[in-house]
Design a protein that fits this description.
0% strand, 7 helices, single chain, mainly alpha
Length: 128
């Protein structure tokens, strides 16, 4: 996300793109396993229902980003496709911001980090 924000008109290095595709594949596999294990309850009555919907949004946006990037790579380059490419890149940037929400999911599993963040937020509230 930082690279994309710093270098707006440049495509990311191949290494970063490959790492992003690998993470997308891993999150997709995890999501498919969780949905197959949870069945219909995954979307209806799971105790982690908000997290499940967040996971769905993140995986969907990541797949959308990969699909759009592949479409951009194989599209012919002319004036009308350049305008479409700019729109696609805007959507990709939004998808990358949504992927940054994965940090929230990680915080859920790390109790010590969650306690630290909670205490920092409480301290900030008392300062205001």
């Amino acid at each position: 996300v930082e690279y994309a924000a710093t270098y707006l008109n440049e495509s990311p290095p191949v290494v970063l793109a490959v790492i992003g595709y690998v993470y997308t594949a891993l999150f997709l596999v995890e999501f498919i396993l969780r949905v197959s294990a949870g069945g219909l309850q995954f979307f209806t009555s799971s105790p982690d229902l908000p997290w499940n919907y967040l996971d769905s949004l993140i995986v969907s946006s990541s797949l959308l980003e990969v699909g759009l990037m592949v479409a951009v790579m194989f599209s012919p380059s002319d004036i009308s496709s350049e305008a479409a490419t700019l729109r696609v890149l805007r959507v990709v940037r939004i998808a990358k911001l949504a992927r940054a929400a994965r940090v929230i999911k990680v915080i859920r599993f790390i109790q010590a980090l969650r306690d630290l963040v909670t205490s920092i937020l409480s301290t900030l509230k008392s300062l205001v």
